[in-house]
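Q: Joint fold for the lines below.
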Amino acid sequence: MTAAAGAKRHAADDRFIATMATPWIALALAPAAAIVVMLVLFPLGAAVWTSVASAEGPTLARYVAFFSTPRSYDALLHTVGMAGAATLGSILLSLALALAIRRMRVGRATLRTLVTLPLAVPVLIAAYALTLFFAEHGLFNYLLVHVLGIAGKPLVISYTWTGLVLACVWRFFPYTALVVIAAIEGLNQDIEDAAACAGARPHQVFLRITLPLLVPAVITGSVLTFVGAFGTFSIPLIMGRGEEMLAVVAYRHVTGGFDWGAAATVVVVMAVIQLALLGAYRRRLSGRS
Amino acid sequence: MLARPRARAASWLVLATRAIFVAAFGAFVVGPIAVLVLWSIAQQWFWPSPLPSAYTLRWYAWALDVPNVLRSLQMSLVVAVLVTAVTTAVALPAAWVIGRVPFRGKAAVRAAFALPLMVPYIALGIGIATVFYALGLAGTLGGVVLAHTIATLPFGILVLTAAVEAAEPEIEEAALACGASRWQAFRRVTLPMLAPALLSQAVYVFTLSMDEFTLTLLVSSPDTATLPVQMYAAIGEGYFQVSSALAVLLLTPSVLLIYLMVRFARTSLVSAEGG
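A: Joint structure:
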């Protein structure tokens, strides 16, 4: 673009675009803003209020109860542990996938489709399909026992904590895999080749060069996977000994006794944990740039 | 030029390991869906047999006979149409302003519109249910539509803002310079440019609404239960052939629509609904 054209462009901006009056901007944003205020901020505020409300004014009694009741406190540990384990599994799976997809000559497109498939399935249906897949007499156990011969008899996976981890890997690993695969494909292979030329063995190249370069992508992807697994409701509702996960604990407070205060306490704790994680991630991002 | 190390032929061991890994991964990803489809057409399937020993389509007929299934399908469709209309009408002006007009506080506005994606879905659900019960909106059609809209709006704004940013302002400016009014320029120039994005946004929002479960479970009544809520009830009954058939019926349009969208609109979005 020449300087003259640039100046003209700016003139055009000034004339037609930047002159849009503030009231019109506000009007265009108003409906969406109203929905966010009415259906997000107001309900979240209502949840916070419900969690502290009592006849004698605001109280923290429900939070004290949450952190001193083994059932809810264990649920917190199980939920964080489950999301952490699913995230770890997703990282390993994604790294392996990224390394494989990079060297593949055929089948790349198919592998990519496979990576996105779990996200195209409605989460309730995914939860049900996973329950059937990991059932004691399901296909997964058939593969373990009769095809691979790894296990002597069927393992109990569905309705256990391990089953939830596997199900959450299935559902949420694509968030990590998509980011990591994109990162490895954008990597400059000359750096790795240089290390190899200098005599580094393949595993040294991977550990010293490739992996460090992928760390930002792994972190971004695993934040998304963790948040997905941490907040999942449908999967533990269908296949968990559901009570153990926080989201289901909150729901059970409502269905078993209409204890909205206890339910609100659970989801406020969840929201605080998730927002703290996302906030830390954001700070890390802005700290780097 | 030096031969690059990676150009060396990979050893058969590496190739075999990779093939085994890819096959295992494929089985892991496709397995659950395959099991669902097989159960929906299985007349008999006894352990330990990898496949059913007899097949039938009977369960699909039964699935449609489950009490309230057709009514909840109708409810799902009505809700999805309304949600798509509301989301598009609300998201388009917001996206146009965010994508085209410079104003102060834009970053904050964008962050606010992404807020529903930042908190756990169940927190949103419990909060909305609390408010809806207080306002008498719980169990009503309007309540279900509003709840869905908060789930779909962030995606609608995201998709449309990206489209507005991609559409070149020069063409609109040319129309304005030639004497078109702002409305005419928008209606005759910008809107046609946005049509493909509007279509894929509508398809995506429609699919999200059809599949929404968590929020609907919390705010609907038996009268306003959508198909996923009805399916959850059917799962509780324990007839897994019938539940599987229902699940396949609900799954097929989602996968098909998203496949078509990825294939033809080159949108890389996938069903990222929460819950």
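Q: Anything notable?
A: Chain B touches chain A through 95 residues (CB under 8 Å). The first strand of chain B starts at residue 42 and ends at 44.
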